[in-house]
Design a protein that fits this description.
The protein contains 18 helices and eight strands. The chain has 424 residues and is an alpha/beta fold. The strands form two sheets. The protein has a four-stranded parallel β-sheet, with helices on both faces. It has a four-stranded parallel β-sheet with strand order 6-5-7-8, sandwiched between helices. It is globular. Bound molecules: iron/sulfur cluster (2 copies). The site of one iron/sulfur cluster (SF4) has 10 residues, from loops.
């Protein structure tokens, strides 16, 4: 690792020793899970590079952006409208974390029975491990689940926090509340960046975000092919990187990868044999470097063909309408698009059930593996409904609940293998 990175991390006040340890474990974990795969496409080298430089080159870019006067905005939820962030000439990065590091520190400010995702992002901050968090000028939280909204109250002592109110229902008055919140966010961005969000800037930002969604939609459609041309592990990584990388560069790389996948499909080449059982994942987001479940599934002789999650199709399924020309019209279009998000925090949340069954059918999945993080009430509750909806369509489901520890690997493997045999 270059000396200039160490200097940069030191300036960002990271705990260098603990951070070295984290990078070492991450590198080994990545090698075991990703580099061991056979038959990966050349286009994946870009993703390998981005991941290897996630705390290096990308952070350097963020520092350069800051030096040129741009603000860095960190987020934890796909509800934060990136279109507005970009239109204010700021950079948006995801801060959700998927590793166990810093859990003890986190438990000093949130209860033990908090989901691993929340404890992880808090732990990364308190243990001084995350150069993204340290680079942020503004950290945007949201009132989605109880765990997050209460955690942000304590987290505000450590980061420049701003919280958006997300409604819990989707009636007219909820839409009004959401629009008011989007406008409040716009004002806050303008105040903190000193830049005015104009119709021209917003139009451009909507195009950038939609292009990235279109590239990921194309990638997801290609996974319906027999044999499937790309592993679930790789697509999860792509989705994870979409929250960190420069959006325009990312879209270009994914489009190139899709061209390569189309060639592969034409030749009937797959990442696994055609008769490999195809499973779809559904549930909580899997933040980087949480690769545990896809790895278990794909080591058990199955392949993951889709992710119904926020680090997956929930973030890419809907586009913002690009037809409005006025600022107000564009803001309405942004509000409308975000109100389609089918997070389990909504009640009722029937759309999610329809979306899951439709997606499983489109991808010709042999089964769905529902993944809930331990102590996640919203997704834990929806397990029963999802299972019922899938059953009605004759699609089997396995429900798993886990966290970021490796202790239950063998137990999960046994359950996934039994499910594979049952569906095969
Ligand atoms: S699952 Fe819900 S709370 Fe979590 S990132 Fe997605 S929309 Fe936000
Ligand atoms: S996984 Fe569940 S409990 Fe954790 S932040 Fe997301 S919605 Fe909240």
């Amino acid at each position: 690792m270059s000396e200039s990175y160490r200097e940069m991390w030191e300036k960002l006040n990271l705990d260098l020793k603990a951070h070295d340890g984290l990078l070492e474990v991450l590198g080994k974990f990545y090698g075991d899970i990703y580099m061991s795969q056979q038959g990966r496409l050349q286009g994946m080298e870009y993703l390998d590079f981005v991941l290897s430089e996630v705390h290096g080159l990308r952070i350097q870019e963020l520092q350069q952006a800051k030096a040129s006067g741009k603000k860095i905005v960190g987020t934890f939820c796909v509800f934060v409208p990136e279109e507005l962030t970009l239109a204010a000439d700021a950079v948006q990065v995801g801060l959700c974390a998927g590793a166990e590091a810093g859990m003890e520190e986190a438990e000093k400010i949130v209860p033990r029975n908090t989901c691993a995702l929340i404890k992880s992002f808090i732990g990364f901050k308190l243990a001084r491990l995350c150069p993204f968090t340290e680079s942020c000028d503004m950290v945007v939280g949201e009132t989605t689940c109880d765990g997050k909204k209460k955690a942000y109250e304590s987290f505000a002592d450590y980061v420049p926090m701003y919280v958006m109110e997300v409604p819990q229902r989707k009636n007219d008055r909820d839409r009004e509340l959401w629009k008011a919140e989007v406008l409040r966010y716009k004002e806050e961005l303008e105040k903190r960046t000193g830049n005015t969000i104009t119709a021209e800037k917003l139009k451009n930002a909507i195009g950038i975000c939609n292009d990235r969604r279109r590239a990921l939609q194309r990638l997801n459609r290609l996974r319906a092919a027999f044999p499937v041309p790309i592993s679930g592990r790789d697509v999860l990584l792509i989705n994870q990187i979409s929250f960190y990388d420069d959006p325009v560069r990312f879209t270009g790389s994914i489009s190139t990868l899709c061209d390569q996948l189309e060639e592969r499909i034409k030749k009937k080449e797959g990442i696994v044999p055609e008769n490999t059982p195809r499973f779809m994942l559904s549930g909580c987001p899997m933040a980087v470097p949480n690769w545990k479940l896809p790895y278990i599934i794909e080591s058990a002789g199955a392949v993951v063909v889709g992710e119904e999650s926020c680090i997956g199709t929930r973030n890419t399924r809907d586009l913002v309408d690009e037809s409005p020309e006025t600022l107000e019209g564009m803001i309405d279009a942004v509000c409308e698009r975000y109100m389609k998000i089918d997070c389990a925090c909504f009640t009722p949340n029937k759309e999610r059930l329809d979306n899951i069954t439709e997606m499983a059918k489109e991808l010709k999945a042999d089964g769905v593996i529902h993944y809930a993080l331990m102590f996640c009430q919203p997704y834990g509750h929806e397990v029963f409904k999802v299972e019922k909806a899938l059953k009605a369509e004759g699609i089997p489901m396995l429900s798993l609940e886990t966290d970021y520890s490796m202790e239950d690997m063998e137990q999960l493997k046994t359950r996934v293998e039994a499910f594979r045999e049952m569906t095969g």
